[in-house]
Amino acid sequence: MRYSPKRKPTLMPLVALAGLSLAVTLPALSSTVHAAPPVAYKTVTVHPGETLWTLAERSTPASADVQSTVDAIVTANHLGDVSLKVGQRLRVPR
Q1: Helix (H) or strand (E) holding 89
Q2: Is the dihedral of CA 8, 13, 15, 18 positive or negative?
Q3: Pairwise CA distance, residues 67 & 85, whole Å
Q4: Could you tell me the domains of the chain?
Q5: Which one of 5, 22, 58, 93 is least enclosed by Cβ atoms within 10 Å?
Q6: Interval 6-50: pLDDT, tens
Q7: Contact 54/70 with Cβ under 8 angstroms?
């Protein structure tokens, strides 16, 4: 019977495992989550004859979509219906 000497354990499997762990976790750690920028609001008071559309037109830049501003006003003010009352105060995006 031939005696085979016991092999010394090597660190190579641990090094390979550490390298694999770094390769998997580093991209996940370095990526940043891009959240939407906070929206600044101004408070306006509804005057006779004003509608959501006219309020949105006034605060929407020329290159932007007025409907998006209307939607933002409805969302920011939790409006169930679109009928406004004179004197009502609304948050409107700047």
Answers
A1: strand 89-93
A2: negative
A3: 20
A4: 41-93 (3.10.350.10)
A5: 5
A6: 777 778 888 888 888 888 777 766 666 667 778 889 999 999 999
A7: no
| Contact in structure between 69 and 60 (CB atoms under 8 Å) | yes
Q: Kindly give, in sequence order, each residue whose CB lies less than 8 Å from that of residue 17, ignoring residues fewer than 6 positions away.
A: none
Asked whether the beta carbons of 91 and 46 are under 8 A apart, the reply is no
Planar angle of CA 56, 57, 59, nearest 5 degrees = 65
Q: pTM, whole model, 2 decimals?
A: 0.59
Integer Cα distance of 69 and 56 in angstroms: 5
CB 83 within 8 A of CB 68: no
The DSSP 8-state label assigned to residue 71 in this structure reads: H
Strand-strand pairing, 89-93 and 41-45: antiparallel
Helical H segments across 1-94, by residue range: 12-30, 52-59, 66-77
DSSP H or E segment with residue 81: none
Percentage of the residues of the chain whose pLDDT score is greater than 70 = 88
